[in-house]
Amino acid sequence: MDIQDNNVTVLNSAGEREYQNRTDLVNVAVAEGVSQIDRFAFARCENLASVTVPNGLTDIGYCAFWACFSLASINIPDSVILIDSFAFQECKSLASINLPDSTTEIGDDAFSACESLESINFPESITEIRNNVLSGCIRLKSVDIPCSVTKIGGGAFSGCVSLESINLPDSIIEIGNHAFSGCTSLKSITIPSGVTKIGYNTFGNCKSLESVNLPDNVTAVSKDAFTGCKNLANITYKGKTYSRSSAEEMYNVLPCFKENMTFDEFKRAIF
């Protein structure tokens, strides 16, 4: 360890739990040659504000920066392949993340409860948005999902109360339970054509949601998929828009509803 003149602490290693709970670390640079930040390496370093990591780093481990409440800045170099589960969970000061094209896997809850996070990019090297990856990111307003992604995991964006828009590409074939639950600012959504099932509480309590475009080949919609969407006025299916006044017609036309719930359940769940 070496303290430089500019108050940056240079670290020659980042082993498992090596610096966990350290309160004296504020500005850190991980030395060249380190290829992995191990499990819990900086967990609960509550005063850690900035981290610079070297080119050649490939893995950011499980809970590596978990609960670093003051962390506002970190560079993720083009060499990083894996950002493991919970790596940055509860980094409450982190405002933006730029993910390089080298990153192929982002684990469950990797950025959940990052309450200041306003922007994040997902590179085209990512094929899956994992469970709860951005859950509770209350300042996140918009997200673009690349065409490489085929699956959005359960709870991926749950509780993102400021999320107003999200682009879901046609490459997506699966959206998990609770994926957008509690996104209270989301006003409209177009579900990609490859999605055949809308699961439990997928859009639950999206209180601003006014319109939904369902794919033509949807075969199953959970009776709780849209529960609590009190402003949902229109659902479009096969080019036709159904409103509250045509709810019975819609129920009879769409087997994905009729086979999974009674008409009374449909009215309560959808309209």
Would you spell out the secondary-structure blueprint of this structure?
Elements: E1 2-3, E2 9-11, E3 27-30, E4 36-37, E5 50-52, E6 59-60, E7 73-74, E8 82-83, E9 96-98, E10 105-106, E11 119-121, E12 128-129, E13 142-144, E14 151-152, E15 165-167, E16 174-175, E17 188-190, E18 197-198, E19 211-214, E20 220-221, E21 234-237, E22 240-243, H1 247-253, H2 255-258, H3 263-270
Parallel strand pairs: 2-3, 3-5, 4-6, 5-7, 6-8, 8-10, 9-11, 12-14, 13-15, 14-16, 17-19, 18-20, 19-21
Antiparallel strand pairs: 1-2, 21-22
Provide the CATH superfamily of the largest domain: Ribonuclease Inhibitor
In DSSP terms (H or I, runs of 4 or more residues), the helix count works out at 3
Total count of strands: 22
Let me know the average pLDDT. 92
Beta-strand content estimate:
15-25%
Question: In terms of structural class, how would the helical and strand content be classed?
Answer: mainly beta
CATH architecture of the largest domain: Alpha-Beta Horseshoe
What proportion of the residues is helical, as a percent range? under 10%
**Unreliable spans:** none
N- to C-terminal distance: 61 Å
Domain count: 2
The top-level CATH class of the largest domain is Alpha Beta
Shape: elongated
**Biggest pleated-sheet summary:** 5 strands, mixed
Rounded to an integer in angstroms, the radius of gyration calculated over CA atoms is: 21 Å
- Strand order in space, largest sheet: 1-2-3-5-7
H/E series, N to C?
A: EEEEEEEEEEEEEEEEEEEEEEHHH
Write down the CATH topology of the largest domain.
Answer: Leucine-rich repeat, LRR (right-handed beta-alpha superhelix)
